[in-house]
Amino acid sequence: TIVVVVTLATSGSRSLLTHRHEQQTAQAMVEAEKKFRLLFEDNPQPTCLYDPTTGKFLEVNRAATEKYGYSREQFLNLTIVDICPDLPPERVAAAKHGIEIRGEVWRQRHRDGSFLEVNLFARTIEFEGRTARLVVTQDVTEKRRSERLQSALYRIAEVSTTAGDLSELYPAIHGIVAHLLAIIPNSFFDA
To answer: What is the pLDDT of residue 4?
Structure first.
């Protein structure tokens, strides 16, 4: 009977330790989920999670809804292709294979139909028990427009110093300005 009592006591304490360990693990998971939610939701950069197989958005943060003009509910009814309409098929395949993206410039569509240029960072993570793509974007639209404008001004300055006469200068400047107007929407000049 002593052996039985010791065996029962030992198995009971193992069961108690296992139960306590399971509780601590569950609590740690809850805390990790809270931290993730806080970091995700309060991130000042637009951040989203999408399913790499279907392309459907799983979650978006406040910064994403503000930047792209969609409500959270509207966003969750979209796919990555809705936001990135000129997304090459090889990038979709890369996402399905978990290839990390660091600092690529992508065009993304705003709700009003205009386009943003963003620096995009993406990686595959585990989210709520399934594979998801975590995407963080940084809007570089104005920066790139300014760079294009500055480049055009440099080209105009260069042409103005190398042109032999006004009959060479005016067509060259006209070509530079026409190109600039073709790539920069009118809204850039309204500010």
So the answer is: 47
